[in-house]
Design brief:
Length: 119
């Protein structure tokens, strides 16, 4: 049950942040926080990693949907197991982020990316 709470918390939080970024930030205008270690930048990613498949939306949605379903299956198999709480938590974090990105792909047609790390 904790895994589902983590997924919902992450999904809702990410959705709220993305809505804020969409309404209040300009494209490609960097805003540094935490002494420049984190950079907030509004960007629309119409593909997968590094805009892969951006011109092939149906293929991208199919592949994303397949991997999202596989993650849900893995999580469903992990939840009843008592011994793998840390791994279950990690998969729940991944599912939470993936669900937010999947929602963006279906609803908006792109994923709202908004932060990066600077080392």
């Amino acid at each position: 049950m904790a895994a589902i709470f983590v997924i919902l918390l992450l999904f809702i939080s990410d959705l709220c942040i993305k809505n804020y970024i969409e309404k209040n930030k300009e494209f490609h205008k960097d805003e540094e926080i935490l002494g420049g270690k984190i950079i907030i930048t509004k960007y629309h990613n119409e593909g997968a990693f590094l805009n892969a498949l951006e011109k092939h939306r149906k293929i991208l949605l199919t592949i994303s949907g397949f991997f999202f379903g596989a993650l849900i299956l893995v999580l469903a198999l992990l939840i009843p197991q008592k011994r793998s709480k840390l791994f279950t938590f990690a998969v729940a974090l991944i599912v939470g982020g993936a669900s937010s990105n999947m929602y963006d792909r279906v609803k908006r047609g792109y994923v709202v990316d908004y932060f990066s790390f600077s080392f």
